[in-house]
């Protein structure tokens, strides 16, 4: 299967279980793998035969403007939006939140058909 990937998109958002954590904007890094057959786009050299990844990134950043308690909800919302909006066979979304000390972050990854 072919894929288009967006790595570590910085999404400003208000997220966290405690109210105090949600009060301050933070950056969540989102990676996305769009599983799509790219043969038509490769042949035509036309983005209309593929998925415009700049448009995907813009819509993901827009989704980040909605406050949430959990990263799980965020990745589910992103996957749902992508599957409804774009011609992709499946999508994998990973979100990395820089929250725990002495780590490079905590990640939640899902794949949806």
Quick description:
The chain is an alpha+beta fold and 113 residues long.
Would you write up a description of this structure?
The chain has 113 residues and is an alpha+beta fold. The chain has a single domain, classed as 2-Layer Sandwich (GTP Cyclohydrolase I, domain 2). Helices cover 33% and strands 32% of the residues. It has helices at residues 19-23, 39-44, 53-63, 71-85, and strands at 3-13, 26-35, 90-97, 106-112. Strands 1-2-3-4 form a four-stranded antiparallel β-sheet, with helices on one face. Helix 3 (53-63) crosses helix 4 (71-85). It is elongated and about 50 Å long.
CATH superfamily: GTP cyclohydrolase I, C-terminal domain/NADPH-dependent 7-cyano-7-deazaguanine reductase, N-terminal domain
CATH top level is Alpha Beta
Domains, number: 1
Class computed from helices, strands and strand pairing: alpha+beta
Distance between the termini: 13 Å
Number of strands: 4
Blueprint (SSEs and pairs):
Layout: E1 3-13, H1 19-23, E2 26-35, H2 39-44, H3 53-63, H4 71-85, E3 90-97, E4 106-112
Antiparallel strand pairs: 1-2, 2-3, 3-4
Features:
113 residues; alpha+beta; GTP Cyclohydrolase I, domain 2; four-stranded antiparallel beta sheet; 4 helices; 4 strands; 33% helix
């Amino acid at each position: 299967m072919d894929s288009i990937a967006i790595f570590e998109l910085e999404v400003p958002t208000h997220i966290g279980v405690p109210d105090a954590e949600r009060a301050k904007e933070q950056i969540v890094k989102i990676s996305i793998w769009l599983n799509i057959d790219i043969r038509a786009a490769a042949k035509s050299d036309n983005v209309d035969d593929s998925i415009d990844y700049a448009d995907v990134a813009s819509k993901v950043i827009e989704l980040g403007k909605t406050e949430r308690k959990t990263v799980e909800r965020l990745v589910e919302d992103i996957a749902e939006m992508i599957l409804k909006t774009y011609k992709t066979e499946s999508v994998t979304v990973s979100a990395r939140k820089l929250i725990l000390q002495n780590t490079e972050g905590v990640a939640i990854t899902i794949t949806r058909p």
